[in-house]
Amino acid sequence: MPSVPRAATPAAARPVVVLLPLESAAFGRAAGHVKSGLTAAWSQSPNRALTELRFILVGDQPNDVIAGYNQAVAANARVIIGPLIRDQVSALASALAQSAPVNIPTLALNVVDGDPRLAANLFLFGLSTEAESRQVARLALREGYKRALVLTQPNAFSRRVQQAFVETFLDAGGSIAAQHAAVTDLNSLNRLRTVVTGANADMIFIAADLRTARTVRPFLDTQLPAFATSQLWSGQIDANSTLDLNGTRLIDMPWLLEPDHPAVMIYARSQPALTPENERLYALGIDAYRLAELAGERGLAPGLSLDGVTGRITIERGHWLIREPSVAQIWQGQLLPGNERK
To answer: 151 - beta bridge partners?
Structure first.
């Protein structure tokens, strides 16, 4: 990694440089939504007349980000935002940890596996569903639930969501009554009904998407309270698709739950409206730019607390920007804040 060139212009006039795979077949659409959110936040900034928001295209392979990062450093960036892809974040984290110090604050838009040593200038911020799982586990325990039935869709993503919930729930004193695959064929569903009956659980955690959850839920004890992450609320939503999930508690960002929230309403909405999954990426871009401004003005340090459109954002372990979304409930095809029902 090259060293940072000496600034020839005031700090406020140096560009905020963003590394995104905008032309990637696999990730370009997601990157475009993040870009739109970044631009929306920049347009509302009182410093926009002084701050250029510059985008550098990167490929979608792990090491593609290194060349883009070097370009950002050569451009005398005030703050660097990106990369977006998890493997690229890992590649950049490894490169920065082994290189000469680079003092430009860098805000990655994803997290890394494990707990690696991170360079002093690198901060991790993203839409981690595993972090949501841990918050749901703590929420359920605070409300007095102790024995969880855990249902997991058979894919790698849902298994990560499940693992994060189970570890946190057990560490905080809860117990797992049973774990079962959230499968949707009739024979498996009937076996699931038998498992649930004998589990003596007092709650259900569902690590599955909407289609799977709505199929499985009627085969469970409808008196048991159900919890989930934002994984459950994605794609096109209508009242008929969620009737079986009435009362299910989950967490999601204020951008989707609280459009009248002061931290939300000042930013332009995407036009036309996006799916919930893509709205989250747009909101990620908004908060990423707000964090970049803070990083450029006074740095990101313990004690930070930002009322973001993705949730309340704080710092853990010096480098991890943790967001705490809002609690919501599915009711009659809508996602309502808290326990509200219309």
So the answer is: 180, 206
